Description:
With about 475 residues, the chain is an alpha/beta fold. It folds into two domains: about 15-240, Spore Coat Polysaccharide Biosynthesis Protein SpsA, Chain A (Alpha-Beta Complex); about 265-455, 3 Solenoid (UDP N-Acetylglucosamine Acyltransferase, domain 1). Helices cover about 25% and strands about 30% of the residues. It contains eleven helices and 37 strands. The strands form five sheets. It has a 23-stranded parallel sheet that branches. A seven-stranded mixed sheet has the order 5-4-1-6-10-7-11, sandwiched between helices. The longest helix is centred in the middle third of the chain and has 21 residues, at about 250-270. The chain is elongated. About 40% of the residues are buried. The structure holds uridine-diphosphate-N-acetylglucosamine and calcium ion. Uridine-diphosphate-N-acetylglucosamine binds next to helix 4 and strand 10.
Amino acid sequence: MTKTSAKNSSFSTARSPRLAIAIMAAGKGTRLKSRHPKVLHEVGGKPILAYVIATAARVVPPKDIFVIIGHEADRVRAAVGDSGVQFVLQAEQRGTGHALLVAREALSPYDRVIVLSGDAPLITAETIQKLSAFHASQKATMTLLSADLADPSGYGRVIRKNAKSTEVRAIVEEKAASTPQKKIREINSGFYAFSVPALYAHIGELKTDNAHREYYLTDMAAVLGRGRQKVVAIKTPHAAEVLGTNTRAEIVDLDARLRLAKCNQLMEEGVTIFYPQTCVIDNAVEIGPDTVIEPFVQLRGKTKIGSDCRIRSYSVIQNTEIGDGVVVLPGCVMDDSRIARNAIVGPYSRLRPGSDIGEGAHLGNFVETKKIKLGKGSKANHLTYLGDTEIGEGVNVGAGTITCNYDGVHKHKTVIEDGAFIGSDSTLVAPVRIGRGSYIAAASCITEDVPADSLAVGRARQTVKEGWAREKRAANAAQKAKQS
Ligand code: UD1
Ligand code: CA
């Protein structure tokens, strides 16, 4: 026994991780003018940083990923903590070089580190692998990923030793660049590979003699060069992968790219999406084949839609599961709900959390539901509020029916059993139970349970006064004649 475990532990030591990934995510994002940290802004329905972490986790296990946090550190940690990554606190944000400086202790057990920017979410595992492999093959101490951008403004420019060299002399930030340097289209992506011992042997040579009085990680290129270390660049042909999110315009641009990519992926899987530029479909949404999504639809969160459905325009559907063959007519709003196969919902239905709509059921215009179960084939077609209600199969809920579920302090439940018929404009004061197959007369106010197969009438009896209107008109006319 002892022998085996000793063997196992020496095995795991021999294979101990030598590659770490550091993700810089401590900055405030001043250019966004936001109260929220930049890396928690969303693109494609997910925080920017969550993309970078997910990609990093495809390259190394989460325990070897170090997210450097600082500005609003607790919020950032809470938002992405379930990914299992490690965190390093950069309490004061004194630049990207300083971010790596504070990670020294965490990274020192590793041989190499890949550094990623927490604000550039489109990077792929394949490109990180290429960067890592190139770094190893070149025996470089620093390798940066570069890209040619049509509009390089705002990015650091790569100054190679000469036009054909893989070696880099320096990275010049936009603000410090001369006019000829500004014309260089090869930009620094903010993704690097470093030899950990070389990085920390020289990181102390960084200075803050720049526009922001910060320690720039980019200056490591020149620092290591002076120390006779090899610094190289590998240019990715996938320039869009390196795009960052320093400004609102850049966030919106990446969001549009991600959403269009999502629509294209769904279309490849057999979904029709008309005018995809107008649809907002989050990353995690799933849709079955032959479903049609009309223009201006939003599908958010963990929404899952079956096959052969039609989602008509202007619906906003969040965290909702929809079965096969469902039709959602225009203008519906749904949150945390479920709709079983072949149901028809809308136009203008509002499903609040916990609405469970049964197979083939109908929910019509201006119907609001909350925490309800509507049984198979049941209908509530017009102007109705159903809350905290359990409705059986084959029930008809007439126009204008209201469940009075709230007494000002507590919520109470309404039960409507199979086959009941609720006449229009009924008021069901909960807690109340309408028995199987019963009828409620229109405009009733029901305050007591109704047994099965009965008729409940809860309204004032109609009285008719014949001739009353004629007499009233005659009296009015007589009074008018007297006055004139
Ligand atoms: C940086 C590069 C630039 C490159 C660009 C690519 C520097 C000095 N410049 O510029 O050459 O073209 O990325 O997108 O590195 N951060 C920290 N701690 C800090 C400061 C920043 O963790 O003290 C984080 C930020 O949260 C961000 C990342 O580092 O996620 C990059 O910082 P940012 O200020 O966005 O750098 P850029 O100006 O874009
Ligand atoms: Ca940036």
